[in-house]
Amino acid sequence: MTARISADLSGVGVPTPSYDRDAAHVGIVHFGFGNFHRSHQAMYLDRLMESGQGLDWGICGVGVLPQDAAMRDAMRAQDCLYTLVVRHPDGSLDPRVVGSVLEYLFAPEEAEAVYDRLVDPAVRVVSLTVTEGGYLKDAGTGRFDDADEAVVHDVDHLDTPRTAFGFIVEGLRRRRAAGVAPFTVLSCDNLQGNGGVCRQTVVGFARLVDAELADWIEAEVAFPNCMVDRITPATTDADREALARDFGVEDRWPVPAEPFTQWIVEDEFPLGRPPLEAADVQFVDDVTPYELMKLRLLNASHQALAYLGAPVGYVLVDETMRDDRIRRYLERYMADEAAPTLGELPGIDLPGYMATLLERFSNPGIRDTLVRLATDGGNRMATFTVPTARDNLAAGRPVALGALMVAAWAEYWALVARGGLPAAEVPPDVHAEAMSRAAADPDPAAFLGLTRILGDLGQDERFRAEFLRQRAVLAEHGVHGAIDRALGE
Ligand SMILES: NC(=O)c1ccc[n+]([C@@H]2O[C@H](COP(=O)([O-])OP(=O)(O)OC[C@H]3O[C@@H](n4cnc5c(N)ncnc54)[C@H](O)[C@@H]3O)[C@@H](O)[C@H]2O)c1
Ligand SMILES: O=P(O)(O)OC[C@@H](O)[C@@H](O)[C@H](O)[C@H](O)CO
Questions:
Q1: Is 175 in the pocket of ligand 2 (CB under 6 A)?
Q2: If pLDDT is split at 50, 70 and 90, which confidence band does 139 have?
Q3: Which InterPro entries does the UniProt entry name for this protein (predicted)?
């Protein structure tokens, strides 16, 4: 006997919301309603509501991309309920139905309904997880890319924009015209200074529409930074089957996640915020050191795992972690090249944090995939790895292990270009064509010409020399041989 997730949860044999969802109302609009939002921010709100608070902070999820129609169908069929399945290292599963999402809007067909929400005074926070690439930033200059095709479209079609930023800018304009105070914009993406990047994109976009509106946004709208953390893989059929088999729950789109979760937020919400401290969210004045630590240690290590692991033939993160050499590379990269760039971290046990990361990556229950980590890797390398190398170059510190990661990434795309990875393991990437072409170029330095991703890093003589040396060693001796030589052990 299985029970379907629906408005009626009476037959569902896993924990479900005990609060009255009918008494809740929407206070947050979220753009980029994917697995991470559902395992993290929506989970914290659900936890808060379960404690008897925050019923005025229900979530309205919004998808702006055509492929989000699948999420709309799943969420609407289930009254926006879904199962979060925490996967423990011993293989046990811990499911709970999350109830904090009250509505899902598919923007390509429901733009006016999205605007109705954005203008509603009850909506006081608009949050985003639209991926690193979603912020329309030119990696080379770091500035808002006003020539992006979707931006050019949106500026002339603000009633039916394609981007989350088109909705946010026009939503703020309509709110202002209606005399409603502006909402706070909360980026929850893995970007250094995510609030600041988001502000730059919103203001840059608004400036294309109306300079006075841009000035008003700059002066009046809050964009707090936050650090988010919870490894959340993509959902597979095996997840759906395990939930039905082991718990009798039929869910169209359950979310798997690791046990660990963290959210550190700058406390700048002029119209108020949910009292999330009651749900274990940390509020601080400056999140910068925590963000740096997480992005440069966790996310950069994820990139290394993808590009060192896949050529060896690994598919999963935990199996890659059982490779002693790759594990040792991560330990050394974090300690020798990433940690020295982090500055003061008051109250943080850095060696303990790094050891916990290795444990989290090794969780055999999580079944996270290398292909997920490599997806949109161009934007991820630009965000997680390149800034560390730049800081080390500027400070005269070693860059050999960072250069090895970049060289492994180039070799990975050379492998893709010659058809050496199984089709299922080739990651989607907006820069795929440029990376394949550059990686396959007979000149190994051509990869460094990807300035939209690397900026001018490839022009630095020391980095260039390290990269070329590491690429040659990788080509001749493979991943293990290159790690042995780089670590000198
Ligand atoms: N998955 C994780 O472990 C994790 C952990 C921490 C932070 N994050 C952050 O969350 C982001 C999304 O991860 P996810 O696991 O939810 O991925 P996902 O693929 O499950 O969902 C991504 C969502 O973002 C939307 N999206 C993608 N590009 C967009 C764009 N250009 N404009 C608007 N919407 C866009 C998609 O339509 C989808 O709704 C990551 O890029 C990262 O910044 C993820
Ligand atoms: O999601 P991305 O694109 O920022 O990066 C891929 C992974 O490193 C990331 O999803 C981690 O799993 C996550 O940041 C853990 O909190």
A1: no
A2: low
A3: 6-PGluconate_DH-like_C_sf, 6PGD_dom2, Mannitol_DH, Mannitol_DH/Oxidoreductase, Mannitol_DH_C, Mannitol_DH_CS, Mannitol_DH_N, NAD(P)-bd_dom_sf
Residue 199: its pLDDT value, please? 98
CB atoms closer than 10 angstroms to residue 387: 18
d(CA 192, CA 57): 26
Ligand 1, CB within 6 Å, residue ranges:
32-37, 63-65, 68, 129-132, 134, 163-164, 189-190, 228, 230-232
What is the pTM assigned to this prediction? 0.97
In a shared domain, residues 462 and 385: yes
Q: Which of 65, 114, 131, 369 to mutate to test the pocket of ligand 1 (most atoms within 8 A of CB)?
A: 131
User: Do 197 and 301 lie in a common domain?
Assistant: no
Q: Which atom of ligand 1 is nearest to the CA of 34?
A: 21
Cα(373)–Cα(384) distance, rounded to whole angstroms?
12
Ligand 1, atom 41, residue with closest C-alpha? 131
C-alpha closest to that of 206 among 189, 226, 182: 182
Q: Which of 268, 284, 300 is the last residue of a domain?
A: 284
| Residue at a domain's end among 224, 257, 284 | 284
Q: Do 74 and 223 belong together in one domain?
A: yes
Q: Which domain holds residue 465?
A: 288-487
Residue 299 Cα to ligand 1 midpoint, Å, equals: 14
* CA of 472 relative to ligand 1 center, distance in Å: 35
Co-location of 98 and 208 in the same domain: yes
CB 41 within 8 A of CB 30: yes
> Which ligand 2 atom lies nearest to the CA of residue 368?
12
Same domain for 277 and 414: no
CA of 231 to the centre of ligand 2 (A): 7
Within this chain, do residues 279 and 302 fall inside the same structural domain, yes or no? no
Work out how many domains the chain is built from and give that number.
Answer: 2
Condensed to tens digits (0 to 9), the pLDDT of residues 98-120 reads: 999 999 999 999 999 999 999 99
CA distance 93 to 257: 10
Contacts of 472 (CB under 8 A, 6+ apart): 444
